[in-house]
Amino acid sequence: MSETTILPTNVPDEGDARFDELQRRLVPLWTSIAEFNQTPQTIVVVPSLSLDKAFPGAMQQAYEERYLFLLLLLRQPRARLIYITSEAIHPAVIDYYLDLLPGVLAWHAKQRLTLLSPLEGSSRPLSQKLLERPRLLERIRSLIADPMRAHLVPFITTPLERDLAVALGIPMYGADPKHFHLGTKSGARQIFAEEGVPHPQGSGELKALDEVVDALVKMRAARPGMREAVVKLNEGVSGQGNAMVDLGGAPAPGAPGERAALLECVRKMQFESSKMALDWYADKLAERGGIVEERIVGRELRSPSAQLRITPLGEVEMLSTHDQRLGGPSGQSYLGCRFPADLAYAPAIMREALKVGRRLMREGVLGRFALDFVAVRNDRNDRNDWDCYAIEINLRKGGTTHPFLTLQFLTDGRYDSEQGVFRTPRGESKYFVASDHVESPAYRRFTHEDLFDLGARHGLHFDQSRQTGVVFHMMNAIGEYGVLGLTAVSNSHEEAEALYQQAIRTLDEEAALAAKPAGA
Asked: What is this structure's pTM?
């Protein structure tokens, strides 16, 4: 089953007016924070997975802990942070992040950190769990010294997070759910077309398999050589709502029997998620819609992304670019990333992303967002230029957010979007390789403390003096699922990749040693 966000109801209520009123507080708050980081503030972090997909308890907790890098905000000496998860976080994990803080005593930071939990391990969204517990909401409100100097930081913004902001009486730094459609696959295609951003040929706002077939007939008429297409659910996340349609055996465009043959191709489409079934997919398409577009092919393909943010002051800021690492049956599932993206196309995709950012700003969108692209290189007249096509807009944090902000908070560096490089105040360039999918059944032998120990013994732990090393995340899932995440930071792409591979080898070797009987 794909991950899809909880849709807004689109029914105005009295909470909408209150939410709009709260959001206006972000302007003076943002101004004061930007001018002087000694300003008191309270940050309430609720990394709720407000998605259709149900995550098992330990895995949900791991994803909620994925954004513990935000504890690094406590380096601001007058910032207070309230971090809420479905279940309690292991104390050793908190100590691990606080020990990464540069220039601040971990003890001092810990006094300004509050951890709260409804102690419910079900797969329901964390925001919903909080809204159902008025006493816990009152506890959170009591911890906010000044509601005029506080804001909510969610992972994703749905009506649940909007209602939570209203219940807490603080603004939310994120896109208003009323803008939900702009981040769907259909909404993105419309924006790309209107803003002149190159994107694959295709069609949006589809509600049935027959409509997919009709769109394919038109697409093949326009491009007879098309051999593959991709169907995408409007709210699919990390490629899990995608399906690949092989058109290789279909009759020529316009030939008798073309439509019937294409319908059969669609019925045989290959789902990116192994748990997907055609009937369920068709029902979800009817419920929420989707798109079909030509699958871009070429001699060499990459999957870069660009990250931006729109501030409460109405400024569009260019933050980063990444090369995404994809896997799955047809290579459309997000597994990890490399930062920064290749210089051959990084400035180009950021320029296109900026067009979208300015459009979203005019629409009233707020917060971080990302654009995914496909970059393709073919031999044309002895040139090896890359062509880049935008494929989706993500109005939320994503898999590239936490490793990039971890690097930024640890080094105080900035990404130069024109040159496509990240530099620290020392003038050093930094690179990383990151993944949320470092996994092996053998890793279930590890505890949190084991990870910290092997990181120290093998020289992997992040070293502030050199500003290189490995930062672990999502550690809660290691004991039950053998899954964790890591970000390997170094001074070049090659060194970051080598450090990442060294970390994987170390985990594998230590897991093999742990499997040996005592005394063997």
From this structure: 0.90
